[in-house]
Amino acid sequence: MAAYILRRLVSTVAVMAIVGIFIFLLLRLAPGDPAAIIAGRSATEEIIAGIREQLGLNDPMPVQFLRWVRDMLGGDFGTSIFAGRPVLELISQRLEPTLSLSILTMILAVTVGVSFGILAAWRTGGIVDRLLAAFSALGYSVPVFVSGYFLIYFFAIRTHWLPVQGYVPIDSGLGPWFVHLILPTVALSLAYIAFIARVTRASMLEVLSEDYMRTAAAKGASSYAMLFHHALKNAGVPILTVIGISFAYLIGGVVLTETVFNIPGIGRLVVDAINNRDYPIIQSVLILTSGLYVLVNLTIDLAYTLIDPRIRY
Amino acid sequence: MLMQKSTENGVLLDVRDLETHFFGEESVTRALGGISFQVKKGETLGVVGESGCGKSVTALSILRLLPKLTARTVGGEVRFHGRDLLALSDREMRRIRGDHIAMIFQDPMTSLNPVYTVGRQIAEAVQIHSDASRSVAMAKAEEMLRLVRIADPDRRVHNYPHEMSGGMRQRAMIAMALACSPELLIADEPTTALDVTIQAQILRLIVDLKERTGTSVMFITHDLGVVAETCQRVIVMYAGRIVEQAQVNDLFARPAHPYTQGLMRSVPDRRQGRQRRLPEIPGIVPSLREPIVGCSFAPRCPFAIDICREKTPILRDVKPGHAAACWRSEEVIGA
Known about the structure:
The complex is a heterodimer of chains A (313) and B (335).
Chain A: H1 2-29, H2 34-39, H3 45-55, H4 61-73, H5 87-122, H6 127-141, H7 144-158, H8 174-208, H9 211-219, H10 223-260, H11 266-275, H12 279-307
Helix pairs in contact in A: 1-12, 5-6, 5-8, 5-10, 6-8, 7-8, 7-10, 8-10, 9-10, 10-11, 10-12, 11-12
Chain B: E1 11-23, E2 28-40, E3 44-48, H1 55-63, E4 71-80, E5 83-84, H2 90-96, E6 101-104, H3 118-129, H4 134-147, H5 153-156, H6 166-178, E7 184-188, H7 196-213, E8 216-221, H8 224-230, E9 233-238, E10 241-247, H9 248-253, H10 258-265, H11 306-310, E11 316-319, E12 322-324, H12 329-334
Parallel strand pairs in B: 3-8, 3-9, 6-7, 7-8
Antiparallel strand pairs in B: 1-2, 1-4, 4-5, 9-10, 10-12, 11-12
């Protein structure tokens, strides 16, 4: 087990190196001189040369790459070109809204998605099952910028039950923080609920037809024990896998949701950075989210062993 | 049909006219065409027949464990201690399962839940039917593993199924089934999936435990040799019906149904060596999708005459305690 974790960590380093090279090349391979792009249309030759010098663009590429990696490992993610402040500081300011939205979304998506899937599998062809079929078609196909505005229209503008947009930091009170996050969380969750519920249903259906389920019934186990004790744990591996995949999609979904609901999070930071061609921010967010994703996947692979005793590394 | 009084002395399970259908897309399969039999207290009843004759469906119908969407018991009664199990609520039925009637299945490799330890699965049966704490139930599980003669029960109780051999898993299944001291144990081909040497051990174990606990056993098998070794009484099934019912000795001495005779001839006889080619019963088992006119065995039967193809024979006594569903039983016995 320890050897496996070590091996995985080593391969993580390799993966991150490759990701790093791609992200690094993003700036260098963009059409035109990065310094000129950064300086803008009306800049003089001297200004551009100054920027080039300042960014170290005159050095050979491998040198530039290694310097970039070394700085990051030392905690220096560079300085925003547009804001003129350290990238890490900008990111940490935007972290709370994004984390709040992501965590609430995952909690909602996993609890609702898994329960929905279990109930649908329990009574195939029943009301819940048919509801899920309809809902998942909708959940997959309606993007956040449609469902988000629908939710805003009905639950904020028409009924005034919930705030329209915006974000309230958690220090300003748990209540207002939560109330502002309800609509964005629901909007972002829909697709994940559909996804997780479908996989849960399929996985549960397979398990429910296994011989050991009949053994459990022959023991006198209740429906609840059959579903949640005997079946769910066996169906857990595929469910856990899609939760991991959902994390990857979450990063893209957060960008859209933060825009629709005007939440000042990482997503908005990136969108603004792209508009401003603020490469240090784009690069840093990309490398950090990739790292997070790799870590989540490692955690999930290790979590398999908790669910299924036959999986040993 | 057999018409006994409701709670005759010594009768534990009284199945009457049990009829179970499977519902397909367009057709209905009459898996059980109204069967009646009894299991007496303390006896081992063998249920014999080819695959698809309705042996397992009988067991699953009794315990109401048929797949909900595709199968339903459409008629008859299953009287256990005089109460019709088919009329019980789901909750009442759950109290019967595992506690009063337990079941072991054919394939021990797939019948245990792979993600829980064997001890926990046995303890679960104890905890469902008593208010024993987890630790008391686990102690009971260990005791049961010792009873089914698994070596190092204190260690094995913490094993997962994949850490055990097939024979050991079947022992664990038996331990689970007997954990609540059931009055009836239904064993559905418990040795079919095992190696021959292990088969003998498991059979001996079931016979021993039955003697010790006084549990009645319904032993489902396609193997007449197993019946001879384990059972007192036997019913022979064909195409969803009982075709013969007798004490084991009578059945082997004087089979009264041509199908039973055919089954016996196709059992390898060690004394005759390998030279002899085993005779088989010609023809195939009829489809149960269409109603069968006459005797369902008639197309394969060497004794068949006109009446066999026109009227379905009912089970009738050829002597007390020995019944066959054949128009020509007398000739069959004499043959």
